[in-house]
Amino acid sequence: MTSIEECGLVLSMEDVGSEIDLAALVETYSALLFRVAHSVLRSRAEAEDVVQDAFVRVVERRSSLRAVRDMRVWLIRITWNLAIDRRRRVRPEQMDEGFAESLVASSMPADQALDESQRMKAVLRELERLPKAERHVLLLSSLEELGTVEMAKVLGRSESAVRALLFRARMRLRERLERGGA
């Protein structure tokens, strides 16, 4: 086994602590950040790239991590913004067709899973038709059940604006799904 000194690397205790913290952050938050990115991009590969990019940002800003008050919200915001930026560049045909199927429980009988998959596709279609701000707040509220305060921080909006957007998004989505029979 090669030691740090043999590789020619000299790390201060602060650097070693940061790397341990980074490993803990990756272990703690990578699944959540993947869900955030995947909900926006609907592509496993693109979502994985966004999560990697988010942790690269953490490494780049390692010296200012102590100033971050809520690491979870900060990481979600970084991932969210990276995913939104990437979504602008991703063509719809690059999105996973199997995304709706991935949301269905694997323990269901095949006929129920097929029905549920069709329902999920209808919901996702209508979700895409929502105004951008409403779609964003609805996605965030369904991920890890982010609260209004956290969603406001991620989106850079007031709490009352987030509550209003969430109410309108839920009502609009419900109306559209009822009209469409889903």
TrEMBL record:
It comes from Edaphobacter aggregans. Residues 25-90 form the RNA polymerase sigma-70 region domain. Keywords: DNA-binding, Sigma factor, Transcription, Transcription regulation. Residues 122-173 form the RNA polymerase sigma factor 70 region 4 type domain. NCBIfam families: sigma70-ECF (TIGR02937). The keyword Transcription applies. Belongs to the sigma-70 factor family. ECF subfamily. It holds the Pfam family Sigma70_r4_2. GO terms for molecular function: DNA binding; sigma factor activity. GO terms for biological process: DNA-templated transcription initiation. It comes from the Bacteria. This is RNA polymerase sigma-70 factor (ECF subfamily).
